Amino acid sequence: MGKKITEHVTWVGKVDWDLKHFHGNELSTKKGSSYNSYLIRDEKTALIDTVWLPYDEEFVTHLKEEIDLHKIDYIIMNHNEVDHSGALPELMREIPGTPIYCTAAGEKIIRGHYHQDWNFVNVKTGDTLDLGTQKLTFIEAPMLHWPDTMFTYMAGENILFSNDGFGQHFATESLYNDLADKSQLYYEAQKYYTNILNLYSVQVKKKINDILAMNLPISMICPSHGVIWRDDPAQIVRTYLKWADAYQENQATIIYDTMWNSTRKMAEAIAEGIEKTDPDVNVVIMNAVKDDKNDITTQIFRSKAILVGCPTINYGLSFATDGLLGMVKGLRFKNKKAAAFGSYGWSGGGVKQITEALKAAGFEVVNDGIQELWVPDEKAIERCRAFGADFIKAVNGTEEEGKEDMIPAEGGKYVCSICGYVYDPAKGDPANGIPAGTPFEKLPDTWRCPICKVPKSKFNPQ
Fold first, then answer.
1. Which of 108, 80, 142 is nearest to 419 (CA)?
2. Which residues 6+ apart lie within 8 Å of 11 measured at CB?
């Protein structure tokens, strides 16, 4: 059943209370989610986005109860991942000639998903569509978080339909932010940002500033997951600007895996050393196996520093630690320090591998880490306490983040014309084998933008 949210707009989406995992098994959604679709009725009628594929028939059935489908003049697809476009095939069987407004990249993705020659209308930033008393303006937002993403702004009632931007995986029948538990809502919003948008923070910041520069009055923000922001909608915009700016709190997170509790004991002793040295810092300890991986990454997002530890297993790392470090590398956290710790029996080597993985993930590693043989005795525990104390002193004592890792290099910065990624010669691209100090001109021809994968030819001097 539809829910009227303004004079012209009705919510016609689906609340999914049962959803516990998303993107396959990559993202936990303990609070469920929603797939928000919006019907705009004016002199002309437009439908913005659909719902996830498992609910396609249900969506179309309920939409028929709300409106004669043949009265829908336009379909607006802000983003075409299947959680938004999944009901399109079922809907288009009913109204096959209805024009679908999307970006050029959006058309390619829809064709790639459904292999249909529908009536596509490509739009770009600044293009408009008059509905009568209301007018839609399209705003491209590539890589927030797919290449096809766009926002749609409706002048008249001043609504920004932001798709995945400003969303959360948060099921609620009440729809609105002022009716939700604020602490739960903001945790899910931050978890969503961490795991979906953090690696695109450069684009997030740029796009928000672009929209702010347009001086659009915004009375409501309607994302495609979670709540509608109607009470001070600018609050989530302000929060995104903070999150996109190398966010950190006064927190240190210790993440460990353990086989026979040796590494756990080290983690707890390191925490004691940190807390005794800096009582103001919030210390969080998380188990890489038992704690949810997306909750761990959310705590990393909050932290100014992390420590990662595990026992050396088969001359390497535990499955959970190795997998978590891979996730962390992909999320591209900024402005965070780190170190490694671990126990071993005969070979050792795990701490060094963690250290290298942290460096490859973009963390500023402050020391070589600590490792202890077999089960730590009281002397080893005291060494771990001292290690924790020295670690937090190093974290707090560095005034210019990342300066030590900068290597002077000839040549200037270059910016990707597609996604806005900036290549800085002083930093290089360690995650892709490009050491700090490598000028842009000396990058191999095979090098690609780490974000959108376009070649060097798409970069311009900054």
1. 142
2. 2, 3, 4, 5, 36, 37, 38, 39, 175, 228
Per-residue pLDDT tens digits for 392-405:
999 998 434 444 44
Contact 426, 400 (CB under 8 A): no
**Active-site residue, 79 included:** yes
430-445: pLDDT as tens digits: 767 888 889 999 999 8
For 318-328, what is each residue's pLDDT tens digit?
Answer: 999 999 999 99
Residue in this structure with the two tokens 């040295």, named with its chain if needed:
277
For residue range 115-136, list pLDDT tens digits in order: 999 999 999 999 999 999 999 9
Active site (annotated) includes residue 57: no
Model-level pTM greater than 0.70? yes
> Does 217 score more than 60 pLDDT?
yes
Catalytic residue among 16, 42, 56, 81: 81
Can 164 be counted among the known catalytic residues? yes
> Are the CB atoms for 100 and 75 separated by under 8 Å?
yes
For this structure, is 364 an active site residue?
Answer: no
For residue 344, which phi and psi values (nearest 5 degrees)? -155, 165
C-alpha 278/C-alpha 28 separation (Å) is: 33
Could you say which of 7, 18, 23, 441 is catalytic? 23
Annotation marks residue 145 as catalytic:
yes
Catalytic-role residue among 49, 140, 164, 372: 164
Distance CA 6, CA 4 (A): 6
Count of CB atoms situated within 10 Å of the CB of 128:
11
List residues bridging with 306 in a β-sheet: 253, 338
Establish whether 424 is a catalytic residue. no
Single-letter amino acid code for the residue at 282: N
Per annotation, catalytic residue among 225, 257, 344, 429: 225
